[in-house]
Specification:
Layout lengths: L2 H22 L8 H26 L4 H34 L7 H6 L2 H11 L8 E3 L5 E3 L4 H24 L8 H17 L6 H20 L11 H7 L8 E7 L2 H8 L1 H18 L4 E7 L2 E6 L4 H21 L8 E7 L8 H21 L2
Antiparallel strand pairs: 1-2, 3-5, 3-6, 4-5
Length: about 375
């Protein structure tokens, strides 16, 4: 089979897989930043596959008519592939690093290698550093051809290593199948560089994305769709008997029924979503925000440092008050919090800890009503 025809078939498969992935995305006001990045990642890979199909079509045109088109497409391919790899790294960062710990300035600096790739490939008509296109329309690799093939995998490797480091410390990222992407990109890069330039990287990423999306379905079973925190199923499956060194905080939104009755359930849902976001941003490396039902949440913290947990509650309270000053929905978001710790040598299953948190919450609410 003609190599360019085989390339066209592979890239068409990549286009189909990416279109299927894009169709599965449902963006809304509650869509998280990392999900938007993942969508952009899919769009970039779709662009790679489309441009590769276009490149295959160019090979059947007279060479004197397609020289500049080939150079432009190659520059686009190399640059968008680097952007694609960077987006994967960015997606991994947003998924596994608490937002308050992310250094966004450094993330911007990490975009510089992509500019280098663009400048190198854009200089191809004037230098032979990366690629040269001969009079017949075929390209040849230059001495700096390897640079993009080093930069791009480094982004993928860095993202994968980051998720593995976080996964070793957190139950909540055990579902994140980052190794799939690394494996498929490695296969695509090796095959493309050993097979006389046959384009496989785009379709390799597309296959990885499909498998990745299927794997994430397991995680979605443990995420509350309204608030973005974990649900009771997660707590039951992963933290049932692992509470020996744990402090739990139970949150109950004050007068939440009044918010629903006065402003409607859509505003009530927005209040729950807002509080879920506050909990997610406050959670540290060993903290698990969970919605247990209705307007009730818990934060399970693998720590014995009560002062740190109390400081977290105060931070959440200040963040809630700050949001009350900014939003214009008319309601005031407030909560009561009950804190309980595992008892050394005692019964420390999750149900016992939840019962202790309930008792602490009841005591707080009783004192609150008496002081009114």
């Amino acid at each position: 089979m003609d190599r360019f025809l085989a390339d066209g078939i592979l890239c068409t498969l990549g286009i189909i897989l990416n279109l299927v992935m894009l169709k599965s995305f449902r963006l809304s006001k509650r869509t998280y930043d990392e999900d938007r990045i993942l969508r952009a990642f899919v769009q970039c890979d779709l662009s790679i596959c489309v441009s590769e199909v276009f490149m295959c079509m160019l090979t059947y045109l007279p060479s004197h008519k397609n020289y500049w088109l080939i150079v432009i497409v190659w520059t686009f391919n190399y640059t968008i592939l680097a952007v694609c790899a960077y987006l994967w790294f960015l997606y991994c960062v947003l998924r596994v690093v608490p937002k308050k710990k992310i250094n966004f300035f450094r993330l911007k600096l990490l975009f510089i290698p992509i500019i280098v790739v663009f400048l190198l490939t854009a200089s191809s008509p004037f230098t032979d550093w990366v690629i040269t296109v001969d009079s017949q329309g075929y390209y040849r690799r230059g001495p700096l051809y390897v640079i993009p093939w080093i930069i791009d995998p480094l982004y993928i490797i860095a993202g994968t290593v980051l998720t593995k480091i976080c996964a070793s410390n957190k139950l909540r990222y055990r579902f994140f199948p980052s190794t799939i992407m690394l494996f498929m990109v490695a296969v695509g890069c090796i095959f493309q560089n050993l097979s006389a330039g046959m384009v496989t990287i785009g379709v390799s990423i597309a296959v990885a994305l499909v498998k990745f999306n299927l794997s994430l379905k397991d995680e979605q079973a443990y995420i509350d769709p309204l608030t973005g925190v974990y649900n009771r199923q997660f707590m039951g499956d992963y933290i049932v008997d692992n509470t020996d060194k744990m402090i739990g905080i139970e949150f109950d939104l004050d007068d939440f029924k009044k918010i629903n009755d006065t402003f409607g359930h859509l505003v009530g849902d927005n209040a729950l979503s807002t509080f879920g976001q506050i909990l997610r941003e406050a959670a540290g490396d060993q903290d698990y925000p969970i919605r247990t039902g209705g307007d009730e949440f818990v934060m399970l913290c693998y720590t014995s440092d009560m002062k740190r947990v109390e400081a977290m509650v105060e931070e959440i309270r200040k963040k809630t008050e700050s949001i009350n000053e900014k939003h214009k929905d008319g309601y005031q978001l407030a909560f009561s919090a009950g804190i309980a710790a595992a008892i050394p040598g005692g019964k420390n299953d999750i149900d016992t800890l939840l019962h202790r948190m309930d008792e602490a919450m009841y005591k707080i609410k009783t004192e609150h009503h008496l002081n009114k």
